[in-house]
Each structure stands twice: as structure tokens, then as C-alpha cells.
Amino acid sequence: MERNTKFVDLLENRRRDCDFLWATRPMDPALPHMLPPDSIYDRERIMQAVLQDNQVKIAINTIAKTTGVGVKDVENNARAMINEMASKADLATVRWIAIFVTKALKRMFSQIYINEIILSNLKKETRISQAQYIYVPSHRSYLDFILLSYILFSYDMALPNIAAGMDFYNMKIVGELLRKTGAFYIRRSFSNDLLYKQIFRSYVNTIVSHSDRAIEFFIEGTRSRSQKSTIPKYGLLSIIIESLLQGDVPDIHFVPMSINYERPPEELLFVYEMLGVPKPKESTTRLFRSLSILQKPFSHGRIFFNIGEPISASRFVDKAYRQKKILQPSFKIPSSVVENIAYLIIESHKKNTILMPINIIALLLNEKVQTKPKEPYTLDLLIQDYQWFKSFVTKSLKALMYGTETTDNDTIKQEILESLKPHDELIVFDSSNMLKIKQRHKRMKQLNYSNIKGYPLSEQTLQIAVPAINIAIYSNPTFAFLAEIVFITATIGENGIETEIALERYELLRRLFSTEFAMRPIEDKALIKIEWEKSLNVLISQNCLHTVNNLIFIGNNTKLFSILHNIILPFIDVTYVTCILLSEWTERTSVELTDRTILVETQKEVERLIFETKDRCQHPYCLSLDLYNTVWSSLLSQDIIAYQKHTNTYRTDKAKLTYLIGALLELPLRHPTEIYVDAFPLIISTSSMDVQAKL
């Protein structure tokens, strides 16, 4: 594993020691923000500072005048807001929680690996730096913030101020316990609430400047159900950077952290959410019910926690910006600066992704179902394919991957079998030593179809889609390294293509799927060409492609080309189907065009195509609502559709839409000859099932 300095298992010592003695050990947690004693604010002083903030006072007076409510009443409302929001860190509470968290983690996971040298260096750096530190982990599970807090506690580092949603606040007992571990609570939407907006801005600025603890937030906003990186959200990030612009702190260091689960605890819930079944509402009762996952030891395998290099905000917010702020108090940091920092964080998440064996196995199995379902996929064949593809991603793409670099079949065999243990409800070897998929869907009782976010899919569809999307969730992390090269495979036909046309098609796909794959928007064609050439050279080096003069042809390595080509097809297919539906909207239906109606109609049409056609939308992943949402965002960003606020509907730009449909039709796509719904029964395990979807 390159770029790996030293990963250690956090649970190794915990399995030997007494949990109680460890959690109650003498501690002097390292505080990451070095401040003079009189500049460190406790909770009460932070709340007072917020209420005394000039912008908050202006908001209070404005609301009092416009609503006719007394200033005192508005002030009381403001005080209630900040009291609801503010954290209340308490080490004694953290210690008691640590005992129970330790027992749960030791039961659920076989190992939790942490890049210890990087963490130790970070700890040393915080002791001498005057900067404020912002921890920015990737978001793959509800467990993420608990995991980070647990790691910091394990290394005697102070727990941060943690940005948390109101879902947790509303959980009885749990909400207050989390507040005492450092959580501060944010309402989901408050853009139209002037008072709350100013209080939140002031609270964040105050803890950036006057808290001796770091701040933690998820730049992706919500958990990634697909287990891919998602585009960054700029709101909280811009407020944090504002503190630097105002000169409240000398620098701010953003610390990206990539969290990689061998099996996310919400795995099956994610699948159903992607198909439209709403997630269960968080509650204390449901939390206790979820403890059933502790029944089976090591049921969720390993976790890798990889810390990236800190990103200094002062590199982007220079003295010129600060001077401009002094001369012009209303000056705001340019959005390009915020966007640049945001994508540096996301790119660090991707670069530091640790691929697990299951990610490669899922990718290979997905290909097998689509191309050769009638041929048995034995352990010996899987070992060969796994070794080959692992070598490709680690050597050619410089991906980080768990496992030793070896060609020894016995070692690789153990690596594969060990990785499959947490997934015995999804992937198994049958009695003939053939790799099979287990059926994960069971008919859901008392399902309220009025709550379904998309189209109510049939039981037949769910029987195929649930395990198929479950597999895809595990192959998706590979896109951190594969995204650019898979675009290229969708641009090259069997008869070859001119390089200029191939580049134009790449630009089209990159623009269309920058949201889907959380890629930095690039307008400079020269930079896009450099990116394209780099990926093209990788494929040429693998004999996937070859060039003759000004033409690019498919090479002899059709096996690799097929894998890369097939995993991008669902994304292109759904975009095409969405565009066709939009172009025919008035002819197909009299319903107003809204994001909700197009989502339902697209999923309905995709379900039909999966069973009735042999080209577009063969793969059940095309049913994912996450995919529709990113397509919709992409079309909005390119002004192919536009929101009409007065009617709360959308209109299409017919010319742009027609052009895009034509460009997508010109792509030389080669859909698998095997129809997924026909191939699926050949690879599904026929053994008895005992799987319960916890919805």
C-alpha cells in the first residue's frame, strides 16, 4: 500500500485492556487551538458574545420593527436559538460513553486502522501552531463522527465542536449526550430566517476565534448512500473562512479525513433509500433496536481512517483580501476561493480512499453478471481476476488498497475469503465453489406507498434491484480512481475515432457527470486536455487503446475495456432517458414539470426498460434516485432546464436539450449482450435465505 506510512489497529490494545480503566485514565487532552487564557470562551461566554454581535442585534431590531413584536421577546427568541445550538463539552460524559462505544466497536469490527504517524504529526503541530483546526471527514455513515471522536479520545486529543443535524437533537437523552461530547446543532434549512441565520453565522465565527477545540463538519452535507464522494456544500465552509478574512485568527487549517468501511452499518438501508423507500426517522427507540447488529461478532469487518495533509486557508485568503475587508466591511470572500478549498478537500478524500478487496470483488462480479453469467465464477478464477485488477489500480492509478503486494495465490485467496466474511448475507461461494449473490430483499409488510419518494416498484423489480444495487454500492468507491478513464471508454468506437472528437466527447461527459463524481468544474479547455491525455495514456499503457496517427482505436485488452465501459453505462443511460422524457413531456403527460414528477416518471420508465429492452437501462442501478438527482442538478447547472419560481415548476431549453440528446446518441456505447434480468437468476444463490431488511 503506497503512501502508507503506518496504519495501526486501534482495537488491538482495547482487546487486551480493561475498558473501564482505559476510559477513566488520567487525561490532559491536547487542545488544538492555542489561545491566550482570556481569549478562550466557555459556553456561557460564547452565547453572550453571539447575542452581543452587531449583526445579531440589527437582525433583532429589524424583526421587532417588521413584525411588531417587542424587542425583548425577539431577544428571548434569539437566546432560545443559541441555547438550542451551542455545544456543552463534558469530559466525564465522554468517558462513560467511551466505555460503551468501545464494547460496540470491538463487537462490530475486526480492526479499525488509523494512519498513526500522520495523526501524531497533527497532534504535535497543533501544540505549536496558532491556527484553528477544522476536521473535515468524508461522510459514509452515521458512525463517522462517533468514530472520529473515539480516535481523538484514544490519542488524548480534545474532542471538537461537531456540527450536527436536528435529527440527533430530537432524540431523547441521546441528543443531550451528544451535545456533551461537543455537538452543536444546526437546523436543516434556515435561509429565510434572518435571526437564525445571523445567530448561526456569529456562533460559528465565535467558536472559530475563541474555542480552544477544533471544529468538525461534513463538507458533503449528508451521508453518501452510494459510497462515492459527493459534491461539497459551501455554506458552513464560507462562514468559517469569513473568520480568517476578518482577521479573527491568523490561519485556519482544514484537515481532510477519508473514512472507508468494509461494510457500512446502514448498507441495506442505503439500498432501499436509493430505490425510494424513505429512511426511518432517527429516534432513541430505533437506536436501541439497531443494536441487533451486535449479535454477530465482527459483522462489519474493517475500517480504514486515513488522514490527509492539512490545507492552509491563508494560501487562498491573502493580505489583499483582508485589507479589502477592512476598507469595505461588506466585502465577501469570492465564491471561487471557497469552491477551490472545498474541492481540495474532496480531492484529498478521493486520493486517500483505501480500497478494500470487496470493492474489487464487487466490480468483477458486476461484470460477470453482465457478460458471462453462464460460466461458473470459481474461486480460482476470482483469484486470477482479483490479482490482475488490483495490480492495475494500485500500479497504474496509484490507488491505495488494503492487502499485501504479492503474487502468492494462497495469500491472495486468504485476502479474498477474509474480505467476504462480513458479506456472507450478500456474496457467497456455494457448495460447488462458485461465487453467487444472495437474495437480500424480503417482501416489506405495512409499507406506506404514499411515503415512497419515487415510483412504487414491483416486487419482481425489487427482487433484482436490491442485491444488484447492493453490489454496486461496493464497486462505487473505485470511482475515486476510475472516473476519468471510464469516460474515455464511452467515447471510442470499434472503428476508431479522431482525437479531436474523442476529446470533445470527453469534455461533454465530464461536464455532465462532474456532479455525479464530485469533480472540480473546469472551464479551461487546456486543463481538461491535460487531464484527458493523462487518462488516455493510462489506457494506452494497458493496451486498452492504441493510436495510429490522429486516430484512437480499441486495443487488445478488451477485458479491462469492457469492465470500465460497463460501469459507466448506467449513468449515461439514465441521463439519456431523462432527456428524452423532458423532450416529450407535454406529449406524454399533462402533469406539471417538477423535480418530483420527473423523478417518478424517470424511475417508472427505467423499470419498463429493464424488462423490455436490450439496450438502454439494462442495469438495475439505473433505478437509483440518487442518480436522477445528480442528473437533474447537472441539467440545471447547464441551463438545459430552468426553475420558474412563480409556479414552482421547470421549463426546458428545447435547443440545448435536442443538442444533448444528439450528442448522447453519437456515443459509441456497447451494451452487454446478456440482459441483466435474464442473467441474474443464473448467479443468484438458491440456498435458503434468512435476511431481514431493517426498515
TrEMBL record:
Alphabetized SUPFAM superfamilies for the sequence: Glycerol-3-phosphate (1)-acyltransferase
Keyword Phosphoprotein listed: no
Keywords (A to Z) from UniProt: Acyltransferase, Membrane, Transferase
UniProt keyword Acyltransferase, yes or no: yes
Protein name: GNPAT acyltransferase
Gene Ontology biological process: ether lipid biosynthetic process; fatty acid metabolic process; phospholipid biosynthetic process; triglyceride biosynthetic process
Domain Phospholipid/glycerol acyltransferase as annotated: residue spans: 133-262
Family (UniProt): Belongs to the GPAT/DAPAT family.
Gene Ontology CC: endomembrane system; mitochondrial membrane; peroxisomal membrane
Signal peptide residues on this chain, from the entry's feature table: none
Originating organism: Acromyrmex insinuator
Record SMART domains: PlsC
GO molecular function, one term: glycerol-3-phosphate O-acyltransferase activity
Protein's membrane topology: Peripheral membrane protein
InterPro entries the record matches: GPAT/DHAPAT (IPR022284), GPAT/DHAPAT_C (IPR045520), GPAT/DHAPAT_LPLAT (IPR041728), Plipid/glycerol_acylTrfase (IPR002123)
One Pfam family matching this protein: Acyltransferase
Superkingdom to which the source organism belongs: Eukaryota
Compartments, record wording: Endomembrane system
Main location: membrane
